[in-house]
Amino acid sequence: MKIDPNSSADLSVQIAQAIKDAIICGELIVDERLPSEAELSDHFQVSRPTVREALKRLAAQSLIRTQRGASGGAFVNRLSFEDAYAQQVTTSTLLLSMNAVSFDTACEARYALERACAPLSAQRRSADHLATMRAEIFRQGQPGLTDVAFCASDVAFHRALVDGACNPVLSYQLAGAVEAMQPLMNMITFSARDRAAITGLHTRIADAIEAGDGSAAVCGLQDLESETRKLAADVFAARAKR
Amino acid sequence: MKIDPNSSADLSVQIAQAIKDAIICGELIVDERLPSEAELSDHFQVSRPTVREALKRLAAQSLIRTQRGASGGAFVNRLSFEDAYAQQVTTSTLLLSMNAVSFDTACEARYALERACAPLSAQRRSADHLATMRAEIFRQGQPGLTDVAFCASDVAFHRALVDGACNPVLSYQLAGAVEAMQPLMNMITFSARDRAAITGLHTRIADAIEAGDGSAAVCGLQDLESETRKLAADVFAARAKR
DNA sequence: GACATTTAAAAGTCTGACATTTAAATATCT
DNA sequence: AGATATTTAAATGTCAGACTTTTAAATGTC
Predict the structure, then answer these.
(1) pLDDT attached to residue B151
(2) Phi (first) and psi of residue A89, to 5 degrees
(3) C-alpha count within 13 angstroms, C-beta hemisphere, residue A169
């Protein structure tokens, strides 16, 4: 682990990168303890605050965790699926909100990816996944449900569908696509009729998953995509007219 | 933007979270300048190094950028697709390498997602995307190509396929799935015969994309997945025997 | 052997200072 | 007057050293 004293980049950036590289190339392995801040500042010939800034950068990416007290220090963190999932969701959400991504573009991506999961989910879903889907469908039919709660339930339904594929990598990759749509969906007001249409399609999809019929599930998702996009188009058109 | 003085969490974590929340909820908008470090430390009643650690955490996630000099400071950063893409790739790569994800699991996820892009790509790909695919196929046939270079070319081919869908959200979401496979693929040694089989399938896929035949491309990807998994299984079996 | 106490190591925080960068204000020259 | 050089001030980047808090391990006591 070395830094280039002639580089114009900030020291804390260089140090963070050096440690990150060491982790990526396997020089530092999971749960291994990094040298203490004092030792690092000595090694890189910088002050402790500078080392600390570098470590905070890594901590922000869940690459390390720190522990206080005797035998504490910074440890290489095993990046868990949960951590990666959470990162993926916030990054995707911000990406969409900051780049004026159209509803259609995001929607297309989401459903294209979900359709990829459907056949696997139809084959492998556990009873639990199916139960979650049914429970969310039931919730969506409840009167007095707010639009925000309806959208949240929608996301939960789709998440169960994706998780049904029993492939954690797939679940992780889909996290952003599914959850980042929620803020966009929240901009829509759902009439009772819209909700019924959506819930009906959800039922169709759940039935297909239950029957192990992947292609039927794909068709259901296809129709749900059309329905969602039509709905959004109507809402935006009405809003533009006003 | 407030922090809870009774919380047990580190101050820099709390401050970073407070600013992050302000960005997510739109209280701070893109390119807006945050208060100076001195003002922030005054506002939160903490020292400047503590504020700086918080800012470094945010900078690590590309949520802010800092600029030195007069009229410098920290600015809310527009999260670009490039930044998000890079983050996604490193996170996915680390996730796979640190969690002993099986080759099959990662492979399944990758090809399932790619098949989702194929029909869109067949419809929308530009001449440029197609040219890239052809060029990579040509490169893969060159004698004397190292295994690592072969894998890199493979990734470039698939990236062009995905980008052909002309949906930046899709490209971003696929980044991790496609690129994170590279280290896993690099563990395989490709015989001349293996390479020919893969390159042949690539040609089949490119032909289908060129013809605008989405389902043929999906079939090609299906076969490529089988081929890849078979190949990997053979390599691992041979290695286990030794 | 079980429990309480001490101790030391490490991260977390603070204060205050200095260095460096950079844009804007000011001064100077043509 | 306008262009160019200089100064200035504000902001981040860096440093040094001290103090606080947490925590596990060593030590001591019953």
Answers:
(1) 95
(2) -65, -45
(3) 31
Report chain D positions within 7 A of protein CB atoms.
8-18, 21-25
How far apart are the C-alpha atoms of A133 and A19, rounded to whole Å? 43
Q: Does residue A242 carry a pLDDT above 80?
A: no
In angstroms, the CA B160 to CA B138 distance is 14
Q: Is B78 exposed, middle or buried (0-12, 13-18, 19+ CB in 10 A)?
A: middle
Contact between chains at B57 and A58 (C-beta distance less than 8 A) = no
CATH 1.10.10.10 at B11-76, yes or no: yes
pLDDT the model gives residue B129: 97
Could you say which of B57, B91, B112 has the minimum Cβ distance to residue A56?
B57
pLDDT class for B57, splitting at 50, 70, 90? very high
Q: Fill in the amino acid letter for B131.
A: A
CA-to-C1' span, A91 to D14 (A): 31
Q: What is the DSSP letter of A143?
A: T
Q: Where do the structural domains in chain B lie, given as residue ranges? A: 11-76, 81-241
pLDDT for the residue B156: 97
**How many Å lie between the alpha carbon of A67 and the closest alpha carbon of chain B?**
11
Q: What does A26-62 look like in DSSP terms, one character per residue? A: TSS-TTPBPPPHHHHHHHHTS-HHHHHHHHHHHHHTT
How far CA B89 is from CA of A24, A152, B79, in Å, comes to: 12, 28, 15
The number of CA neighbours under 13 Å toward the Cβ of B163 is 17
Of B96, B115, B173, Cβ closest to residue A109:
B173
Helix H or strand E encompassing B164: none
What is the pLDDT at residue B209? 98
Kind and range of the H or E run holding B73: strand B73-76
Is B79 in contact with A94 (CB distance < 8 Å)?
Answer: yes
For the segment(s) B81-241, the CATH number from 1.50.10.10, 3.40.190.10, 3.60.20.10, 1.20.120.530 is 1.20.120.530
Q: Is B118 on the interface with A (CB under 8 A)?
A: no
Longest pairwise C-alpha distance within chain A: 67
